[in-house]
Amino acid sequence: MRAVVLLSGGLDSYTAAAIAKQQRFALYALTIDYGQRHAHEIASARAVARALGVEAHEEIALDLRTFGGSSLTSDVEVPRDRDLTAAGIPSTYVPARNTIFLALALGWAEVLDARDIVIGVNALDYSGYPDCRPEFVNAFEHLASLATRAGVEGARFRVHTPLITLSKAEIIRRGVELGLEYGLTHSCYDPAPDGRPCGRCDSCALRARGFREAGVADPLLLR
């Protein structure tokens, strides 16, 4: 079975892809360079793809800085030391990002005659992004059945979200069980030029809490 995996270079997408590989999917990795603030996660995605032994790894440049609307695709400052329990959607939300990414994955899946897409979204330890929720994923699966030739001809596309109900600690424990090298990954929204994580953005805070609760040392901090 073939599956298109959205691979960002972060620990969530790495773990989701590894779970799909354990389920005997042949992985076709797709990484989107969307004009984010830095290229470190692209380098991490390449390293993760090699570690997973994917069948193919495609990179697409799609510069969402054209629209802006996010502190990840503009000069707006990335929030630091934010209360992770606060209501509202933070400025790091990139408008329609997962809709765009899944649409690209769907296009490649149809060409590959694949019916499965894997994405590492999480609706528990996350920043409240609307396109990480089960409702969104279910709606996209329905869209896929209407918007593709394969769907009209009776194929059923499935979007696999193996992490969607897991805490960050549970994700990390699962990855450790699978033997993943999380030192290959990158999570920080706004790292130093040499790639060192800021330690204060939402993504850094969620990662740190996850490793702490999992009782595992973050290999990025051991270097």
Ordered list of secondary-structure elements with their pairings:
Elements: E1 2-6, H1 11-22, E2 26-33, H2 40-52, E3 56-61, H3 97-112, E4 116-118, H4 134-147, H5 149-152, E5 158-160, H6 168-177, H7 202-214
Parallel strand pairs: 1-2, 1-4, 2-3, 4-5
Helix pairs in contact: 1-2, 1-6, 6-7
Could you explain the architecture of this structure?
With 223 residues, the protein is an alpha/beta fold. It has one domain: HUPs (Rossmann fold). The protein contains 7 helices and 5 strands, in the order E-H-E-H-E-H-E-H-H-E-H-H. The chain has a 5-stranded parallel beta sheet with strand order 3-2-1-4-5, with helices on both faces. Helix 1 packs parallel to helix 2, helix 1 crosses helix 6 and helix 6 crosses helix 7. The longest helix is centred in the middle third of the chain and has 16 residues. The radius of gyration is 17 Å and the shape is globular. The termini are far apart. The model has no long low-confidence stretch (mean pLDDT 95).
